[in-house]
Amino acid sequence: MAPMGIRLSPLGIAVFCLLGVGVIYHLYAGVLSSRIASFRQKRTVDLRDLLALSMEAAVQGGREVKRIREDNTLEEKSKGKTKEGASEKLTLGDLNSHRKMFYLIKNTYPYIQVNSEEHANAEGEATVWTRIIPEEILGKISGVKEVPAERITVWIDPLDATQEYTENLQKYVTTMVCVAVDGDPVIGVIHKPFTGYTAWGFVGEGSNVAPRASYNTNFPKVIVSRSHSGKVKSFVQVAFGNNTEIIPAGGAGYKVLALLDPTDEEQETADIYIHVTYIKKWDICAGDAILRSLGGQMTTLKGEQIDYSGTEGNKGGLLASIKTDHKALVKRLPPWEESKQ
Fold it and tell me: Cα–Cα distance between 155 and 181 in angstroms, integer?
């Protein structure tokens, strides 16, 4: 006799058991999925670790850049035209550096967003970070700096100044990594493959570079891109006078370092960095973070902060300075419209 006087046939008993198993399965699946969701929500990344990893990625990419240049095995080709009409170069140095940098970061933190200038079709590298933190970081940054993984975007430039790289103008070439949190640049790494020097900055925590003692903003030296120095010349002269010294240079990373205390004899120095055309965020994010870590600024030509989330392009041009009245510099700039891009 079944409970409450209900009689069940063998088929009914089987159905009842199956229903019971189904209920238990769905309850278990619900608990498991909620636990997985909770785990994902709690995934965090220590920014101090991510700084050390970024430095290692830039160095590993830089080794490939240097090796391929010295072996003269560039395998140069064109990706197309820039918005200014110049040929956009691609070399084996770009691609090999991308693989080293991108996969080192993704293999270590597979759940963070990593944006790279290049997109290699070949299989990825199997490398994983050793988790060794350099003493220079431990000495300046104490304690854990954890941030939820979903708030982080990493921008990497496997080879900045590819055009100059093909011309063997080595001083302009860098590899760069930037870590943005909620769109704000927080960690910047700029590595010079041919000298081995690595500059880094962590906003609010420290840096291994420093600003110069003084800057001249009345008659500034302005560093600009050598690929379109003619276009920016009139813009700069309207702002600062016809006798303004304009320094054409390659590579956004190199131009940011020109605003700081020079680290080698080949590094030129400038008071202001100006760019008046479209530029990608992997070109400028690392420099922006380093400048911010030292109290400097990098904004659009209208003085707006650059958001390092979302799309890859910055259409607003840029003005970079340090130890100066940045807002006053913005006011001296002539009218500028994005429609000119």
Answer: 11
**33: Cβ contacts below 8 Å, ≥ 6 apart:** none
264 is annotated as contributing to ligand binding: no
> How high is the mean pLDDT of the chain?
87
What's the pLDDT score for residue 87?
Answer: 63
Angle value at C-alpha 224, between 220 and 228, nearest 5 degrees:
140
Q: Which domains does the chain have, with CATH numbers?
A: 44-208 (3.30.540.10), 211-332 (3.40.190.80)
Residue 283, annotated as binding a ligand: yes
80-97 pLDDT, tens digit each = 655 555 667 899 999 999
**Pairwise CA distance, residues 172 & 162, whole Å:** 9
Q: Is 157 annotated as a binding residue?
A: yes
159 is in an annotated binding site: yes
Query: Tell me: the pLDDT tens digits for 130-155?
Result: 999 999 999 999 888 999 999 999 99
CB 329 within 8 A of CB 272: yes
DSSP code for 167: T
Is 84 annotated as ligand-binding?
Answer: no
Other residues' Cβ atoms within 10 Å of the Cβ of residue 237: 15
Tokens 């906003």 locate to: 203
pLDDT of 34 > 70? The answer is no
**Residues paired with residue 77 on neighbouring β-strands, in sequence order:** 90
In this prediction the pTM is 0.85
* Residues 6 or more apart whose Cβ sits within 8 Å of residue 250: 161, 163, 164, 169, 172, 173, 225, 226, 227
